[in-house]
């Protein structure tokens, strides 16, 4: 779904959807980082 569609379904501003998604991705990254080996971490950082 697009951010606008999610915002409409949840009846919240689009900016709120974006900020919540950004926070969720940050938390997911923190959770998964210990499971990654050094090569995966380096590749991930070079993409950002």
Report on the architecture of this protein:
This protein has 48 residues and is mainly alpha-helical. The protein has one domain (3-47). The chain is built from three helices and no strands. It has helices at 3-10, 14-32, 38-47. Helix 1 crosses helix 2.
Give the proportion of residues in helices.
over 70%
SSE arrangement, N to C: HHH
* Radius of gyration from CA coordinates: 14 Å
* 3D shape: elongated
Overall average residue pLDDT:
88
* Protein structure class: mainly alpha
**Counting H and I runs of at least 4 residues, what is the number of helices?**
3
Strands, total number: 0
Question: For the terminal residues, how far apart are their CA atoms?
Answer: 23 Å
Number of domains: 1
| Oligomeric state of this protein | single chain
Q: Pick out the low-confidence regions.
A: none
Main sheet summary? none
Share of β-strand residues? under 5%
Search tags:
single chain, mainly alpha, 3 helices, 77% helix
């Amino acid at each position: 779904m697009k951010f606008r569609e999610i915002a409409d379904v949840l009846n919240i501003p689009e900016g709120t959807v974006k900020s919540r998604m950004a926070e969720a991705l940050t938390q997911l990254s923190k959770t998964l980082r210990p499971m990654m080996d050094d090569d995966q971490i380096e590749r991930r950082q070079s993409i950002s």
